[in-house]
């Protein structure tokens, strides 16, 4: 599951043609935190990956996927139409209504307190389709 998430993040980072150092560090940190060794993360940056979302994700895991994507998208403080479209596409595959992107883009910041994160999770839950 961690590899699938990393591939989605890498696709997003590559959309503008270049993976910035801050993006690479963010993705690598997520990989290591999820038990993926650095030697397995680094080669992933050289490839395009299919948009595959594991089918058995819990609602918390779905939130973590989309939250990580939006946080990465905002890391360079520039939002590109292609990045927003990609995140919307992944949100739909995660079972969200694509309008969840408006809430996420308004509220996601690089550093968030646990209570802010929980509030955002509850706010976005109304966009998650049952099932």
- Classify the secondary structure makeup into a structural class: mainly alpha
What does the radius of gyration come to? 14 Å
Fraction of residues in helix:
55-70%
Helix count, per DSSP? 7
How many structural domains are formed by the residues?
1
- Tally of DSSP β-strands: 0
Shape: globular
Characterization of this structure:
- By secondary structure, the chain is mostly helical.
- The chain has one domain (2-125).
- It is built from 7 helices and no strands.
- Helix 1 (2-14) runs antiparallel to helix 2 and helix 4 (59-73) packs antiparallel against helix 5.
- The radius of gyration is 14 Å and the shape is globular.
- 24% of the residues are buried.
- The mean pLDDT is 93.
Give me a quick take on this structure.
This protein has seven helices and no strands.
Write the topology of this structure.
Elements: H1 2-14, H2 21-33, H3 38-41, H4 59-73, H5 81-93, H6 100-107, H7 114-125
Key structural traits:
0% strand, single chain, mainly alpha, 131 residues, 7 helices
